[in-house]
Design brief:
It holds the Pfam family CSD. This is Cold-shock protein. It is found in: Cytoplasm. The chain contains 1 helix and 5 strands; from the N terminus they run βββαββ. A 5-stranded antiparallel β-sheet has the order 3-2-1-4-5.
């Protein structure tokens, strides 16, 4: 599992971004992944672990989220 910090998340818009600890590009996170993890929101700066998945558009998104 990869780890990172929540850079930005807006529950109204339904998405946000995680800054990976390895210094790579920010990873997209959708509200559906947050809800599947049993969370309501992701406060900025919170540490999180996730599985990076390549979506239909070819961009990486976060799945299987866990606060750490």
């Amino acid at each position: 599992m990869a780890t990172g910090s929540v850079r930005w998340f807006n529950p109204t818009k339904g998405y946000g971004y995680i800054a990976p600890d390895d210094g790579g590009r920010d990873v997209f996170v959708h509200i559906s992944a947050v809800q599947r993890a049993g969370l309501v929101l992701l406060p900025q700066g919170d540490k999180i672990s996730y599985e990076p998945k390549i979506g239909r558009s070819g961009k990486i998104s976060a799945e299987n989220l866990r606060l750490i």
